Recover the amino acids of this structure.
């Protein structure tokens, strides 16, 4: 369970602002309030996992012509035919550190490149962050603007352009978002005035995304909580009153988790059964769902449904779907 | 009460002394002329009459004459009317004139004339108050004191032939008192029983050969919607960027003066300094504090001389406008130094003709012209922790040489006129404008006047410096027809219809900047009537109806650029269109003055307007604001206890109507009921 501790370490600074819910369905766009750019990193992570889960749906929603995409993907066009899509990418704190270090270095030294000023590549930086990768990749993006745009809007614009470049056969960028070989991700998203050489000062959002597959395989369950009512799917707003516990079976070990921004969660499980339990402030289970570990990452989004049944010690008030 | 920045005052004085030195040769020349021709008989000149008691206008032909005979659609608001209705700002005065709509925005009132915003050339003592590339600095509110104003002359329709650029939909000239008009001392105190406190003092003296007049006005007040909720600093990294605050009071100072010597030399000037503090809001919950300064100061010298049948006038002035606008802590400042000289000649020709011609040269030095003023509310959002909007400014100089002439000729009962002007700008396209018309008093009490004119407007800074935008000036052509009936001295009814076409018209939007040029047409009718019942009750009525059509204003802005590590990039643009801002289609008003007693008058004025369209945030928030009937009451009581003093009680928005007006970034609250009291004494 060391990974849980690491995740906790990585996320604890975001705890006070974590309770902003969001989306899940790839066919629906749900608003996210990402006041801090750190939240937007998680938002981008979610967009990437959505695209991996259902690339055809995401690409067509964005207005891309699927037959053209199929031609552009060439020998990877089979990705579009996967029933379950590609496995999601798990958040990795070392990859986050590596991406953030490069992000800050570019801002500090005013450059924009895969190669740092000291000559190190993303592979070097990832290794320097303590991550042992079998394979790795990096995607960079900048949005420059004169009229202020919200961080979430910027994330959408950057993601769209990154995805567009990946399906452009003429583009020289690395294909990472729809790469079936990578399993983990770290995203840094910065908002800053940025001065390119021989250019005036630009206001930019700068994104560095490091993708990798570790030498030692891990598999994770990743997901977000959402709720649905008559007006559609909405972020869950009051999760701070709730606790999240993973009960691993058959031992019955309870591992508490902290919600990530956008009511997200992630935990490692390689095999066996588990329960995802939502508990109220008194520790009572108000919702529960079972799952099974497999050898790859899996995306489990949970819809919290209020059953309007009075709370009793035995009957959960909510169901998880 | 009013803090004068001594350094600034000295600097401005030095500048004006410098300007005066420039004018010295001109004064010498005038002395020479005077010495060689002491004949000042005016019978062969264009000076048709100068009467203190008759309504006089100088706007339409550059010479004093009656509004009825002037070669334009003219009206005059004299001191009696200003006193009767207690107009303490130019905006309040013009709001009661047919064709005008005053949008009382917090940053400053925006005038609409015949459906066109910012389309009026304002003159003070014949000096245009304009900075070419910046349109929003007109002194329509408390920064301009009405206490020293003798009369306000208004021309409806283009006036570019005689006044050059920006005399677009009309011209307004404010004529100050001279020593002959107001001899002695006058003092005045004004208060609204709250934060407003003002004072005014003037001194005038007249002798056989000379007269002089000087006035000082100082005031402070507080904007009625004085609380705001906004980030402490734009781009603040504060975790809690929102805070509430209360505005400080605004303050205003104005000094004016003039001196005339022996009917040939006039020296006049104005010094102004003010800070107008206000709040603004966007379409969400944000509101913030703003501050505007645009004091206009000038020094003018004018010399007239008669040579045979010719009358020559040489006028020179130096004008300085310091334009500063602050929103939250984002400051923009622009400085305008203008030097102007004009030689005007007029002469009676063929007994019944009158020629007026002139040549002028104007050098305009603008430092920090605001080329692009970025959309502020977006950067005030709590999610913004780093972005400070960029303000693009540039310096520019423009020299303008102009040649103009207007000829009037009387053919039996009908007086006709024709005029033309060529303006040669050093920085943008040269322009030509012309006018013609006739004035026909066809029955004893009836008059029909028709006037056609063209005019242009100087380009915005955004047009001027953006290579992608057209540098063509907005152009207007207007034809007016006016039928007047004045059966008795105290009664006059006039019906004016007009049709205007605008070409290459652009408008400014806080988000979109300068729109693409489009064409528009306006047609309208103005009715004005006044009468008096047995000298006991004066009644005034006005009605304006305007219909306009044309293309919507189109905007394109760069939204963002996506940049790849290999240096390639993709630019994305926002494109949208929105209706042209035309003000209300129907406006009207009714006023009366009841002379209750020889020492007591009560005036009531009701103003109404059709609902007014608004559009914000790229036309995503649009609709119409209802305008209630606004009633103002003024009561004057003269000679209380001692002679020559007067108390005025004024109530604006008597019914305390609460409504919204269209601000720059979002809706703004209207001014609630306000009560003023002023006391004045003349000695």
């Amino acid at each position: 369970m060391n990974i849980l501790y690491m995740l906790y370490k990585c996320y604890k600074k975001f705890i006070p602002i974590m309770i902003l819910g969001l989306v899940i369905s790839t066919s629906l766009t749900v608003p996210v309030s990402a006041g801090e750019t750190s939240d937007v990193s998680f938002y981008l992570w979610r967009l990437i996992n959505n695209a991996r889960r259902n690339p055809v749906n995401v690409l067509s929603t964005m207005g891309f012509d699927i037959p053209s995409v199929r031609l552009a993907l060439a020998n990877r066009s089979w990705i579009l035919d996967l029933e379950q899509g590609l496995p999601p990418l798990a958040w990795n704190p070392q990859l986050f550190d590596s991406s953030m270090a490069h992000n800050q270095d570019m801002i500090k030294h005013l450059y924009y490149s895969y190669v740092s000023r000291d000559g190190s590549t993303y592979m070097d930086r990832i290794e320097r962050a303590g991550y042992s990768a079998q394979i790795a990749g990096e995607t960079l993006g900048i949005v420059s603007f004169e009229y202020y745009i919200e961080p979430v809007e910027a994330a959408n614009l950057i993601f769209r352009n990154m995805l567009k470049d990946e399906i452009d056969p003429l583009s020289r960028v690395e294909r990472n978002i729809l790469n079936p070989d990578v399993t983990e991700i770290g995203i840094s998203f910065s908002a800053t005035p940025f001065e390119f050489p021989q250019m005036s000062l630009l206001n930019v959002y700068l994104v560095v995304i490091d993708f990798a597959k570790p030498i030692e395989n891990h598999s994770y369950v990743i997901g977000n909580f959402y709720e649905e009512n008559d007006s559609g799917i909405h972020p869950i707003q009051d999760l701070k009153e709730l606790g999240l516990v993973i009960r691993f079976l058959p031992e019955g070990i309870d591992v508490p988790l902290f919600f990530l921004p956008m009511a997200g969660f992630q935990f490692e499980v390689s095999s066996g059964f588990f329960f995802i339990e939502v508990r109220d402030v008194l520790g009572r289970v108000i919702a529960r769902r079972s799952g099974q570990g497999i050898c790859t990452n899996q995306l489990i989004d949970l819809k919290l449904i209020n059953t309007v049944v009075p709370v009793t010690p035995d009957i959960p008030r909510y169901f998880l779907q | 009460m009013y803090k004068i920045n001594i350094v600034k005052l000295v600097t401005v004085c030095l500048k004006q002394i410098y300007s005066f030195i420039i004018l010295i040769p001109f004064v010498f020349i005038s002395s020479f002329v005077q010495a060689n021709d002491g004949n000042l008989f005016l019978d062969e000149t264009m000076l048709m009459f100068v009467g203190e008691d008759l309504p006089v206008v100088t706007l339409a032909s550059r010479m004093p004459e009656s509004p009825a005979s002037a070669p334009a659609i003219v009206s005059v608001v004299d001191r009696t009317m200003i006193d009767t209705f207690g107009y303490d700002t130019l905006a309040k005065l013009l709001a009661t004139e047919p064709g005008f709509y005053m949008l009382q925005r917090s940053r400053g009132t925006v005038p609409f004339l015949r459906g066109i915003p910012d389309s009026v050339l304002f003159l003070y003592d014949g000096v245009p108050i304009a900075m070419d590339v910046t349109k929003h600095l007109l002194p329509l509110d408390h920064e301009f004191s009405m206490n020293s104003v003798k009369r306000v002359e208004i021309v409806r329709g283009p006036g570019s032939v005689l006044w050059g650029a920006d005399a677009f939909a009309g011209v307004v000239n404010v004529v100050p008192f001279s020593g002959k008009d107001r001899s002695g001392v006058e003092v005045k105190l004004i208060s609204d029983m709250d934060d407003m406190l003002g004072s005014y003092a003037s001194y005038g003296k007249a002798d056989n050969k000379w007269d002089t007049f000087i006035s000082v006005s100082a005031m402070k007040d507080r904007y009625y919607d004085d609380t705001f909720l906004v980030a402490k600093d734009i781009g603040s990294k504060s975790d809690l960027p929102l805070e509430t605050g209360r505005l400080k009071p605004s303050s205003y100072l104005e000094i004016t003066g003039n001196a005339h010597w022996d009917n040939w030399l006039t020296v006049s000037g104005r010094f102004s300094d003010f800070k107008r503090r206000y709040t603004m809001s966007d379409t969400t919950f944000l509101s913030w504090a703003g501050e505007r300064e645009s004091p206009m100061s000038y020094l003018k010298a004018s010399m007239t001389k008669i040579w045979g049948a010719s009358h020559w006038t040489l006028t020179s002035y130096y004008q300085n406008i310091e334009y500063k606008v602050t929103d939250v802590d984002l400051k923009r400042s622009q400085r305008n130094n203008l030097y102007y000289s004009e030689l005007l000649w007029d002469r009676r020709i063929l007994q019944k003709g009158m020629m007026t011609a002139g040549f002028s040269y104007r050098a305009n030095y603008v430092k920090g012209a605001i080329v692009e003023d970025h959309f502020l509310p977006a950067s005030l959002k709590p999610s913004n922790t780093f972005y400070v909007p960029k303000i693009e400014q540039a310096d520019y100089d423009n020299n303008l040489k102009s040649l103009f002439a207007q000829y009037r000729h009387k053919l039996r009962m009908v007086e006709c006129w024709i005029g033309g002007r060529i303006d040669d700008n050093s920085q943008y396209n040269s322009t030509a404008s012309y006018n013609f018309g006739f004035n026909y008093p066809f029955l004893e009490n009836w008059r029909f006047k028709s006037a056609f004119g063209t005019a242009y407007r100087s380009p915005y800074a955004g047009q001027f410096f953006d290579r992608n935008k057209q540098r063509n000036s907005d152009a207007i052509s207007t034809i007016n027809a006016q039928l007047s009936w004045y059966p008795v001295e105290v009664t006059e009814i006039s019906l004016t219809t007009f049709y205007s076409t605008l070409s290459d018209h652009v408008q400014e939007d806080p988000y979109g900047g300068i729109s693409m040029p489009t064409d528009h047409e306006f047609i309208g009718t103005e009715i004005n009537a006044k009468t008096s019942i047995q000298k006991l009750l004066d009644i005034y009525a006005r009605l304006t109806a305007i219909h306009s059509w044309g293309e919507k204003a189109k905007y394109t802005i760069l939204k963002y650029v996506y940049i790849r590590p290999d240096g390639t990039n993709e630019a994305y643009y926002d494109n949208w269109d929105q209706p042209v801002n035309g003000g209300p289609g129907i406006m009207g008003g009714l006023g009366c003055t009841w002379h209750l007693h020889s020492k007591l008058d009560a005036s009531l004025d009701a103003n109404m307007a059709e609902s007014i369209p608004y559009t914000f945030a790229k036309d995503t928030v649009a609709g119409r604001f209802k305008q209630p009937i606004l009633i103002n009451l003024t009561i004057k009581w003269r000679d209380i206890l001692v002679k020559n003093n007067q108390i005025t009680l004024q109530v604006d928005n008597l019914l305390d109507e609460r409504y919204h007006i269209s601000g720059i970034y979002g809706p703004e609250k209207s001014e609630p009921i306000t009560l003023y009291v002023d006391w004045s004494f003349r000695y």
DSSP finds seven helices and 14 strands in chain A. The two ends of chain A are 26 Å apart (CA to CA).
